[in-house]
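Take a specimen:
=====
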Amino acid sequence: MKTLRKILDSQERHFLRGGTLERLYPLYEAADTLLFSTGKVTRGMTHLRDALDLKKTMTWVVIALLPTVVMALYNTGLQANSVLSSLGREGADGWRGLALSLLGIGIDPGSLAGNMVHGALYFFPIYLVTVAVGGFWEVLFACIRRHEIHEGFFVTSLLFPLILPPTIPLWQVALGISFGVVFGKEVFGGVGMNIFNPALVARAFLFFAYPGQISGDRVWVAVDGVSTATPLASLAETGGQLTVSWWHAFIGLMPGSMGETSAFACLLGAVILLATGIASWRTMVSVMAGMISLSLFFNLIGSATNPLFALSPLWHLVLGGFAFGAVYMATDPVSSALTDQGKYIYGFLIGAMVVLIRVVNPAFPEGMMLAILFGNLFAAIIDRFFINANIKRRLLRNA
């Protein structure tokens, strides 16, 4: 590591102001800070000192996402292997089947390693395309604006694949993350300036531009020629019984976006985010309160034609992306409400909206994505209301 440190230090002058590679300084700075801690030290009494800097914050968020990544790999492979086994096939389709054959892994839903590897063959291509294309836009804007490359993209690049179905074409992944980074973040000024969560902006773009691949009522199991809807979409369309048990839905053993199916994995992530103080418990609790309140209201009034009126809060919790959105998306410190009082209103609004969208508008059976984007839109207004109220109280107190 000392040798690497010397190499980086010897090349730094080329990237500083006036150097031949001045425009590429963000790339040098990104590599330097990724490998080593900063050598800059805060001195004097004019700064607040905190051991939890941006890099460590993003690292903890990535760690909190790891349980959902593990479940994404396992469940994606499990769903595919289960269907292949029921069809009597001996292997997967295309290059994935060849890769499994070379690794000596068969189609066995009972094999932990087999499910994990098969799921990885779907997840990691999507992740790599996200990192490559999204990273290109991050570097391009950093070089043009001459600012450092922030660690926030590592979180976005992991969130985006987790909220996508395994069957999505890779060119749509590239198009979606491009829209999310450029129009969801960079046009607002970059990291810390965006009003919407970039990963959700990317998914919303794909949702409305290419509904056939992401709406929830088409191919969500990673097997060619097999069409399986998500439980929420199936319930909304047919009005029949749920196709999955509550326990399987809680663990995440059902079709859906790769990282959103497991409420249990999201719960583990919530513990990490709350223990480190990165996510707001006020927002999480308020999202739950909003969901429970409105779902119980619909349970009370009932409906003879809409079975979603009878969906209990426990089912809303484990179906779709509710748990994932409440833990990782609604608590985004940039696009969510910042004031303590505002977090209660913001979270309650999201929780109530997701139930409203799911139940009243069956055309969008998921709801969490649209509810969070709607909450992002009003977060600044909610904060402004409480900030102005606090200013007025102080003025009256000092008058």
Remarks:
- Residues 112-145 form the longest helix (34 residues).
- The CA atoms of residues 187 and 264 lie 36 Å apart.
- The chain has two domains: 2-35, 54-387.
